[in-house]
Task: inverse folding
């Protein structure tokens, strides 16, 4: 059984990790930086495509989103509560939350930005 060993600051490893996730998410969101779209990992694409077929019209079609992301790049957008995983990816020219992907959907093998990659890895993706 793994114990959470308190860090010298009194914070647990999990608290330090969550703090870093928040810092990165806020920094990437506030910078309004546009990142190249790394693509959607195949497992996520297949699942989103299946959901789209089961619930047509419920969300922006995944192939349409894919095209928007490819044409415009991506930006990081925060929801109301970052700690609950409310970090979204939108096309850089959109503020429409219906056009969102989650970080876990991104193909992390194609991400070149170190901060964006660190954010994905800290979130466990």
Result:
């Amino acid at each position: 059984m793994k114990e959470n060993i308190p860090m010298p600051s009194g914070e647990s490893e999990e608290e330090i990790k969550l703090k870093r996730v928040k810092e990165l998410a806020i920094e990437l969101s506030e910078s309004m930086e546009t990142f190249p779209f790394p693509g959607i990992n195949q497992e996520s694409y297949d699942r989103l495509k299946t959901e789209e077929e089961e619930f047509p019209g419920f969300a922006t079609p995944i192939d349409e989103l894919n095209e928007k992301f490819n044409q415009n790049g991506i930006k990081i957008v925060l929801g109301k509560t970052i700690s609950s995983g409310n970090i979204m990816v939108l096309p850089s020219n959109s503020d429409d939350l219906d056009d969102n992907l989650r970080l876990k959907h991104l193909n992390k093998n194609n991400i070149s930005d170190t901060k964006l990659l660190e954010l994905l890895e800290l979130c466990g993706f």
User: Anything to note?
Assistant: The first strand starts at residue 74 and ends at 78. The helical segments are 13-31, 42-54, 62-72, 114-122. The chain is about 40% helix and 10% strand.
